Amino acid sequence: MDLPADHPQKLDALLKPWNNSDAPGFIVGVAHRGRTVYRRGFGLASIQQGQANTPQTRMRIGSTTKHFTCLAALLLAQEGRLDIDAPLRQYLPELDSISGEPSLRECMLHTSGLRDPNDLLLPFLNKTWNHYPAPGHLLQLANRVASLNFPRGERMIYCNQGYHLLSRVIERISGQALGDFLRERILAPAGMHDTELLTSDHRLLPRLADLHLKDGDGWRRGLFPSEELLGEGGMVSTVDDMLNWLARLRNPATAIGGSTVWDQMLRKPRYSSGAEGDYCLGLIREQWRGIEIVHHAGGVIGGNSQMLAVPAHELDVIVLCNRNDASAPALANQIVEALLGAAMEPFATPAPRPGLLGRWYAPGSHRLIGLLETALPGNPDKVLAMSIQSQNMGALLERDGQWILNCSPHGRVTVTLPSEERPQFLQGHDNGHAETWQRLPDNGPAAEVLAAELLGRYRDAELCLEAEVVLIDGGLHIDLLPATGHSRLHLTPYSLDVCGFVHESNAFANYPVVGSLALERENGRVTGLWLSTARTRNLHLLRSA
């Protein structure tokens, strides 16, 4: 399909709201049939320096790094130096306490069951998001955390820890730092000379944009609390380098590693339920409005990115963003719609049904979902969306009597359309595994009602983690550092059995840790708490005597 003759004007009009000289913004690159047809910077690369974003500006690509890491491992496997179906401990024997014997491939597919330290564990163990632990802490953490989110291979939950450990394996087998291996074996041969691994936000690089966090009417600098960002999300690049890379990605026969490697990269997995997943080896393949797209986004502290290809139409889109209050994936979708709208199916998002809006809880798995109204860019009508563990995950699709949520942190969640206007139960599946959710009250109990049951100390012996539930000014909190009250989770009761929470002491206020808490009772007494977030399931705190 040819692009509209006025496609530059269409894109200029779409992106005009971001064309500001006093705020950070985006860099956008679009190619069609291997030829760049649009490349432009919007807003500032640095508010502090007053420098504009341009196509030459380098920016973090976050988790888009992941498929480069997978490719690095497959290149070593192609040479017979690595077996991606071997357990992690074969290459990292010091992980003698790691649970479940996950393989390298399961780490790549996010099916390892490992907990993600960038999620709930970081504020729990470090007390605040802006704590900088010593290098090597992720390896140490992998050995300490024996509990799993789920048995390996059962389903998927996005896990940066698996990719960090994969990075360590690549370094050990290759005898090189990951950044050196990526440069010599992938980036330099691909002509990507403005792309590299940057392990710390404190390092300075020429032409690298600052990251910006919205803070009221002003901005704060975005810095990730780590000195060892590796294959989980450590790369920086430019739109030109990434468009060059996408052209190769769409033509595996001439791509680095050849067609055999890329067949593995793009092969969809199956979970223990038999359900097929969309998350391949660091890349997502899915059907969206009747077309297949291959993509991966990246989120960083103070920005985000999206890399998206539409293979059938030879269309490639790169959006690099250095502000946290805007969405590169949403903007990339709008660009595709503007250019390919005539070839795409209409939106299949269901309209909200008032009798279904609210929170729903599965007692067996402690899985909390919400059905809510949301607005899509360019669509004035409200549509139905889903939250998971109190975090909004996006609009639902309606197909074959089901509402479907496809999201990279969780895989596919489906809900069977109920016939009642206001049902008390919903049936559905999570990565193919059956779930039953029950309706929670529209208005939860007062904090004082739960306080009598909840107040007290709780402990996770595995992590040497202490917490205390306290009542402050009529509100329930989990104090993560009782000696000083330095860091807390604020609880919102949803029912007598379930609360939501938000990490109120987060240094990055617009990058919150949110989740749910389920009460464990024995003989009518609360004996423990099950904490869950988008990437953590059922972290158990046992009540202290």
Percent of residues in β-strands: 25-35%
Question: Helix count?
Answer: 12
By CATH, the superfamily of the largest domain comes out as: DD-peptidase/beta-lactamase superfamily
Domain count: the total is 3
The overall average pLDDT, rounded, is 91
CA-based shape: globular
Query: What is the name of the CATH architecture of the largest domain?
Result: 3-Layer(aba) Sandwich
CATH topology grouping of the largest domain:
Beta-lactamase
Give the biggest beta sheet: 9 strands, antiparallel
Task: Evaluate the radius of gyration.
Answer: 23 Å
**CATH top-level class of the largest domain:** Alpha Beta
- The largest beta-sheet arranges its strands as 17-16-15-14-22-21-20-19-18
Q: Low-confidence parts lasting 5 or more residues at pLDDT below 50?
A: none
Secondary-structure class: alpha+beta
The portion of residues assigned to helices is: 10-25%
Query: How many beta-strand runs?
Result: 30
First-residue to last-residue Cα separation:
68 Å
